[in-house]
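Risk register update: the risk of archive-format incompatibility is retired. Evidence:
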Amino acid sequence: MQRGSDRLSRHRDDEMKHELQGLLRSGHPTRSEEWNDPEPTADDDPQVWGGPVVPGDEGASLEGVRLELARTLGRSSFPAGPVELVRVLRRQNAPDALTEAVAGLPRKEHYANVQELARALTGTEGTP
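Archived output:
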C-alpha cells in the first residue's frame, strides 16, 4: 500500500486517464459543451503556429519575435550581451535560425530585457 502525499486515489487517477484518452488520441477537444472547450486564439495574437518566428522573415513582427524570445529566455537571462544569450538559447534548444540571429548582433551591446533584444533583431525603433 502506498502512503504518499497523493491527493487522488489510484482509482480516481485511472478515471482521469480514461477521461483524457479521447483528447489525447484525437488531437482536438472531444467535449460536446462548447463552454467547456479551451478558448481559441484571438485575432490579434501573433502568428507563431506555423513554426518559429525568425527575425528577417516576411511574417516576423516585433510582437512575434518578442513572444518567441520570451518563450525561451526568462527574466533571469537579462541584462546580457549576445554571447550570453546565445548560450542560453542553445541550452534551451531554441530554433537555430533564432540563435544565429542573436549571434549576429554586435558583441559589445547589452540588452536589459526581451523588448530591447526584439527591437534590435527586427530593426524597429520605439520608446522604452
